[in-house]
Every structure is written in C-alpha cells, then in structure tokens.
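We were asked to recover a plausible sequence for a given structure. The inputs and outputs are reproduced exactly as logged, with field labels preserved.

PROBLEM: sequence recovery
POSITIONS: 225
GIVEN STRUCTURE:
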C-alpha cells in the first residue's frame, strides 16, 4: 500500500513541477515545495488528473508552513507545542477532517507515511486564523527538509545518473551516486560545492548505505552482487 501512495505523491508532485512551477520560484528547495503542494492537492481532491492511487476522503482541508514560523504565530495560544517542541528545517502540515471520523482517516495516514512525515499531534480543531474548524478534527504531521523522497522526485524530473559509481554504489563520495547529475538545487551546493556534498546529498548517501532507498541503478545495496 505504501508504494501505491508514494507513486501517487510523486506523480502529483511531477505534475505540480510541470504545471505550477511558480510555487517554487523563490524557494531554496524546489522539490520540497512541489511535494508538499502535491500532498495538499491529493488530500483535498484537487489533482489535475484522476489519480487512482490517491485517497478518497471528503471534506479535507490542508494547511502547511515552517514549523518554527507557526510556533512564532501561535505558540502562545495553542497546546500543540507542549507535546512536541518546534523544530528548525521542518514543514508542519495541519490537516482538518470531519468530526465523524473517530480516528485519523486511513488515506491521510497512508499519504503522510509515503511522504516520510511523522505525526506529532491530533485532537479537536479550534477556530484559528482564516478558517473556522470548531466542528472538525485535525492532525499535525512534521516533515524534514532534505528527506530522501525529494531525491526520488529529482530523479523523475531530471532523469537518473548515467552510470553507477566504480565501487558499485555501495561506498564512496555521495556525489558518485546522486541521481540528479551529481548536483543539488540547494544554495549550499550551488554556491559553495562543499567537499562531501551538501546536507541533502549526505542524507541520501546515508540512506543508500542503509538500504532504505535504491542506488541510481534502481537496486538496493543488498541486491548488488
């Protein structure tokens, strides 16, 4: 099931990048922007095309923003932060759904799991900002910048690397195995090209070594021999 939802998220993010690229024009991490907007469209049922793998949940509203920025706006007024403190470099999703659901709808859980986000709070929604959700429930998910799923989207948008590293993709510099032509769109890589790669490259390198994401040739390290 998780692979079906991951495919739905990536399919929609790819369409967002092609048809709504303006949402990321001023972003340091375009892939992060495309993916979180894709999640909003999937859960709210507003995709450009029929997505057979997408969730079917009525009356869902999604809001998102930087975790620390949301704390600055609402930290003194709500109890969210008493459970999990704000964290730098993360997006927080606020997902509202009908009160008739006694638990978080499975479609929401599956989409957020496919994205690699984790739940940090759930409860009765309260009126806040421009929305009135007093008769609804909400759940919060946190998703870090530089998550490996961003690299999967990079591969779809830019194509896989032409060759695997001489070591077979199991060891060595992360730039030998990065799926986006050995580069990254973040300012750190574009401006400094640091030794060993930027934080996004190093994160993907670590995930490949642990066998959590495929190498550029599509295989996990344990399948290499």
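RECOVERED SEQUENCE:
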């Amino acid at each position: 099931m998780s692979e079906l939802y991951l495919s739905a998220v990536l399919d929609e993010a790819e369409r967002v990048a092609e048809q709504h690229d303006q949402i990321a024009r001023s972003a340091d991490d375009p892939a992060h922007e495309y993916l979180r907007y894709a999640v909003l469209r999937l859960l709210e049922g507003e995709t450009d095309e029929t997505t057979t793998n997408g969730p079917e949940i009525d009356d869902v509203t999604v809001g998102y923003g930087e975790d620390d920025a949301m704390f600055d706006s609402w930290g003194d007024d709500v109890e969210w932060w008493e459970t999990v403190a704000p964290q730098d470099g993360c997006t927080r999703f606020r997902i509202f759904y009908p009160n008739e659901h006694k638990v978080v709808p499975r479609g929401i859980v599956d989409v957020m799991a496919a994205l690699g986000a984790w739940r940090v709070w759930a409860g009765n929604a309260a009126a806040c900002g421009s929305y009135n959700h007093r008769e609804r429930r909400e759940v919060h998910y946190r998703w870090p910048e530089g998550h490996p799923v961003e690299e999967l989207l990079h591969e779809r948008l830019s194509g896989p690397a032409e060759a695997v590293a001489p070591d077979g993709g199991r060891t060595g510099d992360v730039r030998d195995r990065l799926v986006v032509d050995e580069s990254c769109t973040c300012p750190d890589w574009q401006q400094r090209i640091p030794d060993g790669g930027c934080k996004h490259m190093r994160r993907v390198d670590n995930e490949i070594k642990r066998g959590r994401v495929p190498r550029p040739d599509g295989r996990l390290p344990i399948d290499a021999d």
